[in-house]
Design brief:
Layout (H helix, E strand, L loop, with lengths): L2 H22 L7 H4 L10 H25 L3 H23 L3 H21 L5 H4 L4 H20 L1
Helix pairs in contact: 1-3, 1-4, 4-5, 5-7
Length: 154
Amino acid sequence: MKFVPLLLLFLIINFGGLAIGNWFMGNGATSAWYTNLNKAPWTPPGWVFGVAWTLIMLCFSVYLAHLFKNYSSPNLIVIFAFQVLLNVSWNYLFFNQQLVLPALIVLVLLTVVILFFFFTYTMGSLSTWRYLLIPYIIWLCIATSLNFYVLLNN
């Protein structure tokens, strides 16, 4: 498959996943539960989350388009689908169900999946394109630290 159709497909899936995750989180950051939590001092302002996820999903979609253009296997599709499931489920677990520990486990698993992409698919041009995963990896580290702080301090 060619790059542009793949890019459009992944943009739709990734931003669709963000929309579903947002829907699953209910009142999210404006809920009484979240606003009353002891949050980490390094918790960014709310607008940063939207900017970060937009950048992450743009970069991730470009990376995936290159990845799937060069490799296509049922295993790759399953790993990607698992990543989408993890990404969407965190919002539901953390905000909607207030299950901080399971949400933390989801973040750790999601980080492992993204690191798997980063370290496994490194041949040819993907050795360069994989650096588009760096914003995702950094954000997952930040999110994990925030989630862990909430777990320990509430």
